[in-house]
Amino acid sequence: MKKKGFSNRLYWKISATLFTLLLVLGGLYIVITAYVGRQYLEEANQRLYGHIADSTVAVMTPLVQGKVDTQAVQDIMHSTMVINPSVEVYLLDTLGGIITYLAPNKKIKLDRVDLAPVHQFIQNRYGRTIKGDDPRNPEDKKVFSAAPIYHKGRLEGYLYIILASEEQAAVTTPLFGSYILRLGTRSFLVILAIALIIGMVVIWLLTRGLGQITETVRRFKEGDHQARIELKDQGDLTPLADTFNSMADTIMANIRELQSVENLRRELIANVSHDLRTPLAIMQGYIETMMIKEKDLSAEDRRRYLRIMLDSSEKLSRLVAQLFEYAKLEAKQVQVQKEPFFLAELAQDILVKYRVLADKQDISLVLEAPAGLPLVFADVALVERVIQNLLDNALKFTPEGGEVTLCLKEDEKGVEVLISDTGPGIPESEQAFIFERYRRGEAGKNKPAGAGLGLAIVKKILEIHQSAIQLRSAPNQGATFWFRLPAYKAG
Questions:
Q1: Please, which residues bridge with residue 405 across strands?
Q2: How confident is the model at residue 1 (pLDDT cuts 50, 70, 90)?
Q3: Domain boundaries, the chain
Q4: Predicted pLDDT at 438
Q5: How far apart are CA 84 and CA 79, in angstroms?
Q6: How many CB atoms lie within 10 A of CB 376?
Q7: For residue 29, which of 191, 197, 244 has the smallest C-alpha distance?
């Protein structure tokens, strides 16, 4: 019911707005029609009777040497009134003054007529409607006919004829208004009905899917995250429906990502808590033992306990450093300072540092670096960190008597760095997420599992260098990690 009620209210609101708009447009239509109709009548009147003045002065001369020819004037008045009884006839001097006139009730309010429209009419020759002064109604302008009066080539005055007298206007104006009202009302009602019907149909077609869209949005808001708008027959609302569906898919993808991050965060907290608790517990246990057996401990046992505590402390320091380093990388707070350097020299220096650790574990460290490798362009410290993390990972999972190889190869895009081990390998089921944050593989034999940040740090550092870490591994065949650094191009 909510869906239907909302849709109906919107439909009738839009329909009422359309009806009001049509009423306003209809009123404007009637006003414009009346104005245009009146203009048409005036123009038609002037074009039909505009020649009266010319025809009259062509056959008789009402002014002779500035004096009125009474007989001629009477004849003019008579013939003009016969042709059109509603006219008003005025005889003007050369300056526009009214010499004599024939008008109903013999009452005029002007003694002079502006000659500018008269001259314009004479020159225009009925090209367009021209209005002049109405001596009986100074505030009004009327269409007229005019002609100059000449006697022996000399201008004696003007014959000025108002074509629509006040009496004619008094009769025709109500009739015209009634006609326009009837015509306009009928036309308006017909057009209003047609436009309203068409408009309401169009509005219905445009809004018919809005109720469904509203209901779907409400369901999504209330927790039905699978709610989607059916795109079939939505008309012009299809882009809106498509946008909502796309937005809903994006929101759900973000929710799933946040849930995944939350799960990984919980896993990290569990792993880190375990990794922190173990060395802390060891340190606490040995400290308590030293305090309890302070007088009974031999110097050798004391040194052994202190060594164990130091190892646990170093493990804690490494773990905290890893967490801090990864947090900075993820927050993009690491400033990269790229420079050209020889990768083989860096690899040699790193292996020197790791050789002691490898010898203790009876693991062989091998460097394969052909001569003539080009300079690479990267951040030396960050690349060193990548190689160290990969070597730590390889040594951790390589058994005694095994081998770890650091190989450098040149290709057309730069220098490849490959670190291989002879450990148990990485199961295929773990390879898809081995580089994800907070993830870690199974611990090797007699090897403690770390917090799972080493490879995640490697991935982040290489992403900063627009590179990627790759993995190739199979069960019981070891693992090979490799990445590529771009060659340095001078200039």
A1: 366, 420
A2: very low
A3: 2-37+175-208, 51-162, 239-327, 334-486
A4: 52
A5: 9
A6: 25
A7: 191
Q: Mean per-residue pLDDT for 244-265?
A: 81
Question: What local confidence, expressed as pLDDT, does residue 301 receive?
Answer: 84
- C-alpha 341/C-alpha 423 separation (Å) is 31
Does residue 87 contact residue 150 with C-beta atoms inside 8 Å? no
User: Which residue in this structure is represented by tokens 């020299």?
Assistant: 345
The domain at 51-162 falls in which architecture? 2-Layer Sandwich (3.30)
What is the C-alpha to C-alpha distance for residues 144 and 47, in angstroms, rounded to an integer?
10
Show the beta-strand stretches assigned E in 126-242: 131-133, 141-151, 154-162
Mean pLDDT of 150-154: 81
Residue 443: the pLDDT is 43
Query: β-pairing, 414-421 with 376-378?
Result: unpaired
Sequence-ordered strand ranges (E) for 303-411: 339-341, 364-368, 376-378, 403-411
Q: What pairs with residue 63 in β-bridges?
A: 68
Q: Is the pLDDT of residue 408 over 90?
A: yes
Report the number of secondary-structure helices (H) and strands (E) in the chain: 12, 14
Token reading at 255: 């929710």
**What is the residue whose two structure tokens read 């909302």?**
6
91 vs 102: CA distance, rounded Å:
9
Question: What pLDDT, on the 0 to 100 scale, is given for residue 264?
Answer: 65
Angle at alpha carbon of residue 176, lines to 137 and 40, rounded to 5°: 80
pLDDT the model gives residue 406: 94
DSSP 70-112: HHHHHHHHHHHHHH-TT-EEEEE-TTSBEEEEE-GGG--S-SB
Phi, psi of 284 (to 5 degrees): -65, -40
Q: What is the C-alpha to C-alpha distance for residues 123 and 59, in angstroms, rounded to an integer?
A: 21
Asked whether 196 and 22 are in contact (CB, 8 A), the reply is yes
Report the CATH architecture of 239-327.
Orthogonal Bundle (1.10)
pTM value surpassing 0.70: no
Question: Greater confidence, 240 or 147?
Answer: 147
Q: Structure tokens of 228? A: 């989607």
3-state secondary structure of 332: coil
Asked if the domains 51-162 and 239-327 are classified in one and the same CATH topology, the answer is no
pLDDT band at residue 447 using 50, 70 and 90 as cut-offs: very low
pLDDT digits (tens, 9 = 90+) for 124-139: 765 678 889 988 888 8
> Residue 162: what are its φ and ψ, rounded to 5°?
-80, 125
At 280-323, the pLDDT tens digits run: 888 888 888 888 887 788 888 888 888 888 888 887 887 777 77
The CATH class, in words, for 334-486 is alpha beta
- Provide the residue type at 252 as one letter: M
Element holding 481 (H helix, E strand):
strand 479-486
Cα–Cα distance, 439 to 329 (Å, whole number): 16
